[in-house]
Design brief:
elongated, 67 residues, mainly alpha
Length: 67
């Protein structure tokens, strides 16, 4: 089995297109963090609105303009 340094130098010396690089980078990220953690992250962050409305009824922006 090749050593890590040999694998890295072989990989960096290889010419690749932008598409191949992006595929490699995506696979490297998945390998580092794991597919399961990535899917949990996606599941937690989809469909949520980052802004929640203040329901106190007071303060700036709590009523319609001009009312």
């Amino acid at each position: 089995m090749k050593e890590t340094k040999e694998l890295a130098s072989e990989l960096f010396s290889k010419e690749m297109t932008r598409k191949e690089f992006m595929q490699f980078a995506g696979m490297a990220v998945l390998a580092m963090f794991g597919v399961n953690n990535f899917l949990k992250f996606i599941a937690q962050n989809t469909g949520k609105n980052s802004h929640t409305a203040d329901k106190s009824g007071r303060g700036f922006g709590s009523s319609k303009f001009g009312v």
